[in-house]
Specification:
The protein has 8 helices and 19 strands. By secondary structure, it is an alpha+beta fold.
């Protein structure tokens, strides 16, 4: 994080643990605000990989599971990097400006992702770098956030996955339960925007921002969940993050076989558990017969109590209560994500 930006956030009430922001003094209120109010959030908990050079688009096209070469400066999209077995190593939001392509991901996953991508550079004229501090980055969300941004002089993309720009400022519109945006720009401009938004918008820490991803059914891969799941099991096909039509990329044969000839046995669901302790990622879930049928992908505290989860589980589990952590553990009910899923096909294994 830029030192001047950190000092600015501290002056605006941010509390830090070393260089990581925690909250703004009242984390419970921040979680309540994220459900129905207008909020702003520093996004330095996310890392940013830059790929520059004349072969950047072709390189990403060959490495990522999603379509990249057709990505315009007015678009962003989810994508992922797979291992040869078709399991997701990293998930990203991909966007670009005139100089580079950018991959946004959890900061703790940045270095492993860069190391994996660098293995395949070979003779490509492309440079990978950590661009996490190249910009100041702000998240903004809420029922009235589009109007708040307009009043602050910020261009507003019209739909999810669209990107607007003005000078050195980029604005990505993200999916979520409310209009949601990511702003990237220079320090002075983002300080001014923050000050204007802070009049009627509540600042929040990273945990409530991650809750918005979970509520939106957006999967995030961390080091402990890397190489554990097929992309279709994370609903990345429903989210437009994988392509079965473009040329070869790592894991493409597995993805295509599952799409054209297989029956996917597992999908990602939402669930609310009333336990106050946040379940760890990969905590198992069990059916009524005591058989393991899936794992927790991600979890964050919910403002109404308990924790909101993303759970990857067998499809038949959606029709009956399941148990968290052990065969007789807390009962949870799986709910579908807030977007349509492709219809099921015939037989294969996850």
């Amino acid at each position: 994080m830029k030192p001047d930006w950190q000092r600015f956030l501290i002056d605006n009430g941010a509390e830090f643990d070393d260089a990581r922001i925690l909250h703004y003094g009242n984390p419970e209120r921040e979680r309540r605000m994220v459900m129905s109010g207008n909020i702003i959030c520093d996004l330095s908990h996310l890392g940013l990989i830059a790929l520059e050079g004349e072969d950047a688009a072709d390189f990403l096209h060959r490495q990522l599971a999603g379509e990249v070469r057709a990505l315009s400066a007015g678009q962003s999209r989810l994508s992922c990097h797979l291992n040869p077995q078709g399991r997701v190593i990293s998930s990203f939001r991909v966007f670009r400006d005139a100089q580079a392509y950018y991959l946004a991901l959890p900061r703790e996953n940045l270095e492993p992702a860069m190391q994996r991508l660098r293995r395949f550079v070979l003779r490509d004229r492309v440079r990978l770098s950590d661009a996490s501090d190249r910009f100041v980055r702000i998240g903004a969300s809420g029922p009235g956030m589009a109007q708040e941004l307009q009043q602050a002089g910020v261009p507003v993309p019209g739909a999810a996955d669209e990107v607007a720009s003005a000078g050195q400022l980029l604005v990505l519109r993200l999916p979520g339960p409310h209009p949601r945006f990511q702003l990237l720009g220079e320090l002075a401009r983002l300080q001014s925007v923050w000050e204007q938004l802070n009049v009627r918008c509540a600042p929040i820490g990273p945990s409530p921002w991650r809750l918005l991803d979970i509520l939106g059914g957006i999967p995030t891969i961390y080091p402990d969940t890397s190489e554990q799941f097929l992309p279709q099991s994370l609903n990345l096909d429903a989210l437009g993050a994988i392509s079965v039509e473009k040329g070869c990329y790592p894991g493409q044969e597995i993805v295509a076989r599952m799409h054209f000839r297989g029956t996917l046995k597992r999908r990602m669901f939402r669930a609310l558990v009333r336990l106050q302790e946040t379940p760890a990622r990969l905590t198992p879930v069990y059916d009524g017969a005591g058989q393991p049928i899936g794992e927790v992908l991600d979890a964050e505290p919910h403002p109404d109590g308990g924790n909101e989860l993303l759970v990857v589980a067998r499809l038949q589990a959606a029709d009956a209560p399941v148990h968290l952590g052990q065969p007789q553990g807390e009962t949870i009910t799986l709910a579908p994500p807030p977007y349509p899923l492709p219809p099921p096909r015939r037989t294969a294994a996850d």
